[in-house]
Amino acid sequence: MFKDELGNIGTNKDMRDDGGTAPAAVEEANANPDLIRREGFASEAEYRAYLATLGGHVPVEGVVEAAVLVSDDHALESRLRDLREELENLRARLHVIQRQAATVVAENVRWADASAHAQLGTQPWLKLAGAMAATFIVTRGIRRLPLGTVATTAMPLAVAVMNRKLARG
């Protein structure tokens, strides 16, 4: 029994056509095995030889682009010129981006200054620095307090206030 033929074991009856053989097996049995090609071609010459064995001629010009015959020096000069133009374009874009970034930073500084003046009046940075210094001093003072003693003393007072509120409600 060949690989493409179905064995007569009764399980493949639904895969057979009216003639009793599988359709794929019939097609491959009628085809010339030398003409069946399942892989790619290594070169254009091999492709043309394969087409000749099939008996037809397919124009390759529409499928394969014609190679441009240009000297290597001319191609390198052209590529170098293109790269220089691209580099100039990138430099111009970078210059524009740098100017835009400087403008954005300057506008943000002006906005922050105007906002501080609107909220804190004259000399806003001095007032802000004073508030930060006062916060630092108060925090240092709180750290030096014996919070355990303060909490122990304040806890009964807080509980008494809560009990009075619950008794009223």
Largest sheet: none
CA(first)-CA(last) distance:
99 Å
- The ordered string of helix (H) and strand (E) elements is HHHHH
* Tally of DSSP β-strands: 0
Question: What is the helix content?
Answer: 55-70%
- State mean pLDDT (0 to 100 scale): 75
What is the CA-based Rg, rounded?
Answer: 45 Å
What sort of overall outline do the alpha carbons produce when their principal axes are compared?
elongated
Structural class label:
mainly alpha
**Strand portion:** under 5%
How large is the count of helical segments? 5
Pick out the low-confidence regions.
Answer: 1-8, 10-18, 62-70
Please tell me about this protein's structure.
The chain contains five helices and no strands. It starts with 22 loop residues before the first helix and ends with a helix. It is an all-alpha fold. Residues 1-8, 10-18 and 62-70 have low confidence and may be disordered. Helix 3 (72-120) crosses helix 4.
What is the secondary structure topology, with strand pairs?
Elements lengths: L22 H8 L13 H11 L17 H49 L3 H21 L2 H22 L1
Helix pairs in contact: 3-4
Quick take:
The chain has 169 residues and is mainly α.
Spell out the key features of this protein.
mainly alpha; 5 helices; single chain; 169 residues; elongated; disordered N terminus
